[in-house]
Amino acid sequence: MALQTILERIRAAEALAGRAKGSVQLIAVSKVQPDARVRDVLEAGHRLFGENYVQEAQGKWPAFRAEFDAVQVHMIGPLQTNKAKLAVELFDAIHTLDRVSLAEKLAKLAQARGACPQVFVQVNTGAEPQKAGVLPESLDQFVAHCRKMDLNPGGLMCIPPEGEDAGPHFAMLAEMAARNGLTGLSMGMSGDFEAAIAAGATHVRVGSAIFGARAYV
Ligand SMILES: *Cc1c(COP(=O)(O)O)cnc(C)c1O
What we know:
Layout: H1 2-16, E1 25-29, H2 35-43, E2 48-51, H3 54-67, E3 72-75, H4 84-90, E4 93-97, H5 100-113, E5 118-122, H6 139-148, E6 155-157, H7 167-179, E7 184-186, H8 193-198, E8 203-206, H9 208-211
Parallel strand pairs: 1-2, 1-8, 2-3, 3-4, 4-5, 5-6, 6-7
Bound molecules: pyridoxal-5'-phosphate.
Pyridoxal-5'-phosphate (PLP) binds near residues 52, 190, 205, 206 and 207.
């Protein structure tokens, strides 16, 4: 199945970059995919998934979690502040912390719960006006502000501009993470995950290359 091919390509990219085997985690992005395809990937033994929509994840994952052990689901889509409470209950990680108001909300929820999903700060590396994410020049201050609130990001995430070479964006994200003492790097999708691994990705988010094209209705 496509999952095995992608896993093999990830292991090969790790080796080529001189990185430890298993240092890159594959997030199988299951948004908008039929349950039967998700089930196939679960039955093949994969346990880490990514979703873009809180409501869709809420409808899909409680049942799969009850049926399969050790499932992890990461939120990789834009998160509205009014869905943050539900999100911290549903997800093991949130890759899309992109603004101060959401950081404040997550910090408050973490304090009340005494626990918090792993958090990645999304960086708008291409400074695209329509794209979410903290601007590169504001990142250091943003991370410091999070830490002051006891919200400790584990890494950075980016979605490079479409139609551009992603390599420089991956390199920029890695540099910003190192500068801020962050070890997680969520970068790379179906078309460019090998380049992301070469640049130090710890989490690649691969959807269509595993599940096939998404059928939006
Ligand atoms: C949908 C999505 C992916 C997966 O995209 P593919 O091109 O299908 O691999 C990865 N990251 C984010 C943020 C996404 O929204």
